[in-house]
Amino acid sequence: MILSILINLVNRLGFFIVIAYLLSRNRPFKNLILKNEVSLKDKLILSAIFGAFGILGTYLGIPIYGAIANSRAVGVIIGGLLGGPFVGILSGFIAGFHRWAIDIGGFTAVACSVSTFTEATIAGLIHRKLKHGRVEWTTAFLIGVALELLQMVIILAIARPFNAALELVKVIWFPMTAVNAAGIAIFIVIVENIFKEQERAGAYQAQLALDIASETLPYLKRGMNELSAYKTAKIIYEKADFDAVAVTDEKQILAHIGAGEDHHKPGHKVLTEATRRALATGECQVASSRSEIECPDENCPLKSAVIVPLREGENVIGSLKLYKNRENSISSVDVKLAEGLGQLFSTQLELGRAEYQSRLLARAELKALQSQINPHFLFNALNTIISILRKDPGRARELLIDLSDFFRKNLSMSLDLVPLEQEIEHVKAYLAIEQARFGERLKAIFEIQAGIDILVPPLILQPLVENAIKHGLLPKKNGGTVRISARNLEKGVEISVIDDGVGMEESIAEKVLSRSACRDKIGLCNVNGRLESLYGSQSRLVISSKPDMGTEVKFFIPTQKAGRNDSGIYSAAGR
Description:
By secondary structure, the protein is of the alpha+beta class. It is 58% helix and 15% strand. The strands form five sheets. A five-stranded antiparallel β-sheet has the order 4-3-7-6-5, sandwiched between helices. It has a five-stranded mixed β-sheet with strand order 9-11-12-14-13. Helix 5 runs antiparallel to helix 6 (109-127), helix 7 runs antiparallel to helix 8 (162-220) and helix 8 (162-220) crosses helix 9. The protein is elongated, with a radius of gyration of 33 Å.
């Protein structure tokens, strides 16, 4: 009999799993599973779905000894594991109440009802211990085994007469435990595929964000205006799966492409409360229904949107809005894409502002430095940040701040001299981005002697560190360490950049110092030339290097009396 029950339960479970698979292909269901923020309405829908699964499990059961061998627990346990306590409790109540109601007075009606509710509740509580609500199929199987055995204990504790309950449990405990635990594991595998699809979509969205950022850079670096907003919205609309794209400033629409463009026109005031919240709080907002879009046009096709703020430095200067024509259709992937684009565009706008400021500077030396900024570093940095964004948004935000700080110093530096501490911070911002990119291959050590209080030319140290990484460490398979040190000498400070990389021939070092290799070693030549022009030959670079032995580049900054003029610019006395 036990084998017969096992075979019949497996057959019925197959029908159950087919329905689960078809449900997993349903977009609204997938959106419910993938949502980061689940509303009360969503929880009620999930409770109804998994409660219905429980009821279906009852009807697909096998009558035996006045009871039913069934897969009712599969649906409600899955509901609890995926949806949390609320969904577990409500779906368990729905399926449990139904079991009691169809067999009022049956000797296992109350026991099965209580066990269904208990299993679902415990599964909901387990959800709180799961990382992002996800569980491995092996863990789900073990949870299923444990909860089904608990059901058997509840039947023995409640069902009367006890002898009948014991005979029933002897027959059904193994088939129900094995089949239902397997069903839970299979259901989890089906749901896990939804998450894997999301991850694949996220990887595609990350590449998409980079492609969009690459195309919008020429426009956004000119600042936020109707032309750059239009070009940006058009690029996103053509590349991404949204029904409309809009860009606003703090008060009005700058551009709107796609559905609704006949009445969402540039120059119109911002209407959506969600947009106003995004502008006021600086946080991403989601509008899930037509009422939240708040368009006065009754024929407006726009039904949902994700809105992200655009920043210039610390100030919110506008918003990016991505629309869809279906209600409640903004998925977590859409939100991540929007947030990624918002951060990248904000960085581009900040870089554009810095670039505009740099054009106002008349100093030929600073302009020469600006012309050496490597655009590959920017795109590599953005690519690194995008790859980190999905897994660790906090770390990605820190890197964006480092990137913004790095380029702000590169493009808007207007000081003759800066404190060494400030120059070190600039190098740390650069290294933070490079270490995020190359991971364990790149290590950095700072050895700054206490009590050093000296001014140095801006952007004098970073090119040396970049040269050590690019030409010294990265050619090595396992990378290496760059060491930045500063120590007091009798008449000034000696600053060194040391790497344990591949090194170089002495002849190359000689060419750098003689300026005959400046076409390939622009950073070293520029630093050397600036030091010589400021302090004379005593401060020119000293390069010590041997192949496979690493390289040391050091220079000397003489002690100088320094102060700040009325404009706040540091300058060296006597120069």
